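FORM 7B - TANDEM STRUCTURE REPORT

SECTION 1: FIRST PROTEIN
SEQUENCE AND TOKENS:
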Amino acid sequence: MEYRQLGNSGLRVPVLSFGTATFGGTNDFFKAWGNTQVDEATRLVNLCLDAGVSLFDTANGYSNGTSEEILGKALTGLRDKVLISTKATFPLGDGINDYGSSRINLINACEASLKRLGTDHIDIYHMHGFDANTPIEETLKALETLVQSGKVRYIACSNFSGWHLMKSLSISERYGWSKYIAHQAYYSLLDRDFEWELMPLGIEEKVGTIVWSPLSSGKLTGKYRRGQSYPSDARVAQGGNPVIGTSVDDERLYNIVDVLDELAEETGKTISQISLNWLLQRPTVANIIIGARNEEQLKQNLEAVGWNLTTDQVKRLDAASDIRPVYPYWHQRQFPMLNTAPDLYK
């Protein structure tokens, strides 16, 4: 397993991590992802460790905390061998202060996550989303308190806009507080909006990228094909699609899958493995979160590493998945010599 430095920190992480949103399945949304319980979760954890995957990602909002509880039990006796990433911010209760990135919620949420996970510290603690109603200084000071207490090792964010992240980094620098070392973001061959603002920011400020939904909710697995109905057993059809705000251009999807089919024949790898491998060759990407409903899915995803697409193969996928960005990014693309990552726009 390859390890990479996570952003501007000394923490090294495997290029693949295991996402546990499939653990629990206590509501309709997450049930569509999976309903893995402790015994199967333990088997999946051991498969990951055997393959060198030692980072496990969860969130307090996954099945209302059940995912954290199951992960904690599956990691019994293994805490010194693993890294745990979890998140807070989204609603987890009916109380007026049971959501957001306020000091009161973050301190309470962290304590609750520690208890569910059965551990005394969290290795990477993410703000699951940006809270525009809480002063950024309050959020970062609360996170600094958690770091100083030893309950959190590193802080990160997820689903931030460029200005959310940049202002947060600036405030942390001003006061000498811990900085976000990573941004957990949605990125895939099908949805490359991340490259317009967040990737250049990550390059400039040394913020590592942890990718969620790298297969675009299963649309890059080969199940979705031209002339065929969407599969009825897929997560999207069952109401478990986290990518609600994106519209899929079916023809563009099918054109990408056409190239993936060609490369699968050339490499002997699956469409999913090629899609994941493409991401691992993108700037700032330090880690990709892979999920699995069962052992077979996990084993297949683990085969996405240990080899690389050729430069030509990457360019073919780049061309098939390219999309015209919104302003001002389309204007900036006309001057690649002024951009942080000019090779992306050749």
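SECTION 2: SECOND PROTEIN
SEQUENCE AND TOKENS:
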Amino acid sequence: MTEIKREKVAAVIVTYNRKEALKECLDAVLRQTRPVDAVYIIDNASNDGTPEFLVEEGFIESVLHPDREPIEGVKPAGTSGAEIRYVRMHENTGGAGGFYEGIRRGYDAGFDWLWLMDDDGVPADDQLQQLLVKSAEKGLLFTCPLVIDMDNEQALTFRPAHLRNVRNSVSAIMTEAVDGVIYDWVTPFNGTLVSRKVVERVGNIKKEMFIWGDEREYVLRTQSNGIRVGTVTSALHWHPPRKGKRERLLFGLLGRVIVRPPDKAGIYYRNLGYLHSRYYGLSKHVKTIIKHTVYYLVNLRCNIKGLVSFYRYYIDGATDRYSLPPRCMTYDEPRA
């Protein structure tokens, strides 16, 4: 394996009301064969006793409570060699806001690499080492592991949409790799390794997106700035099965649409409009509008109110109007 110079790596874990899953994730991060130098736990205002749980489990020693800044807790470097910094946000800022905060702090602290993940994922013990080695070999600045379904070790959690001819299995996706890397396909932020050079060139996460699209936007922005991305097949990350629901349109003749809970659909539609406006052409707008019009008029039997809401939020995103959250939004759900 290629010898790599010692660069500093900070893990960023975004959590919300999943303290038991967070513990499993943290344990895996702290037993890496290539130890991390720091861990940032970004807590989106959990109400399940997460900070007290972290103190009880020995991950942090205490929690500070300033009036205005995010609440923080810290544990100096111990046997793992990693300093753990707990940051509790005053409100739920979603996955986008959480990763924005973690990236900002890690970048400002001078770390060379940021290793990003949600609280419900579990990295293999050598995942970080595999990502760093292959990044050095191939000159990659943005890499992801293979994300495997916790309930089925032969299946991928997230099917590669652009490889429709590839079955949703680990063995099938391996055939797409070139010298251990599947180029131009990643599934962020599930153990995603990002160089500070990426942040220098493209900036931070678009935190206003909250959930459902922020990770895709960051990948597209990275690629549009000439930075190649890739998945390292020797690096593994376990994650619960994907929960998203899809519905067929006209018996499948028009494909499918992703269905979100009505009280949160505005988040998704607005982000969809932004992505399509910024990174795709007119045909993508037309196709999306037609499909969702059919969905609301046919599948939902003339749900005019829902259709009007879709148009409004989709246009808000397409015109980058993120100053106020959609009225249908309630920010009480972790990233799916």
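SECTION 3: OBSERVATIONS ON SECOND PROTEIN
Confidence is low (pLDDT under 50) at residues 328-336.
The first helix runs from residue 19 to 30.

SECTION 4: SIGNATURE
Preparer initials: ____
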